[in-house]
Amino acid sequence: MKLSVLALGLAAGLALAAPAGAQVAATRDPAQIQAGTYVVDPGHTQAVFTVNHFGFSPYSGIFSDVSGTLELQPAKPAESRLKVSVPVKSLYAPSQHLVDSLKSDKWLDAAQFPEMTFTSTKVTPEGKDKAKVTGDLTLHGVTKPVTLEVTLVGAGANPMNKKLTVGFEAKGTIKRSDFGVKTFVPAISDEVQLTLHGAFERKD
């Protein structure tokens, strides 16, 4: 009896702690996603980069404060368009010394090139919830075409603010030397793996 009462109390406490509507699962069905203009949710969007550090280990850092828009057409994904901007000064890594170095003119030169941008030029559907998104990446003052492998994570009403939200994960690889960032190549890998976690909220 005591165990049953305890279990009921715990269940009630969890129900009170959970936000209203939190039990509603996001959908991965494009047919249930509303078309329209979506804007980046900067609090839940990250741009992660990973390099090989002297052959010893992968090393990652994160950019935040992303802004931008997504013109989403779930029924005709090839007509969707994406444009995002990432401030270089938002860079975070475990070592502050390394962060300061990466922002300096020896690496990304945040003072002269304060933003990175990506503007899509082509969206190629790859099944129900995947696509290849090709676009122009501008980094360190250089613009080059880059193709990202994009996967739909989910869409639905955010239980906290009720806004229609859609989320994606995108992955790709670039050579930093192509963008004029050549410090310590090849000791620190020229190839940079990119992983983008993007959340977008629909404009009313």
Automatic annotation (TrEMBL):
Signal peptide: 1-17
Name of the featured protein: Protein YceI
Gene of this entry: yceI_2
Keywords: Signal
UniProt xrefs under InterPro entries: Lipid/polyisoprenoid-bd_YceI (IPR007372), TTHA0802/YceI-like_sf (IPR036761)
Residues of the Lipid/polyisoprenoid-binding YceI-like domain: 37-201
Highest taxon, organism lineage: Bacteria
Organism: Methylobacterium frigidaeris
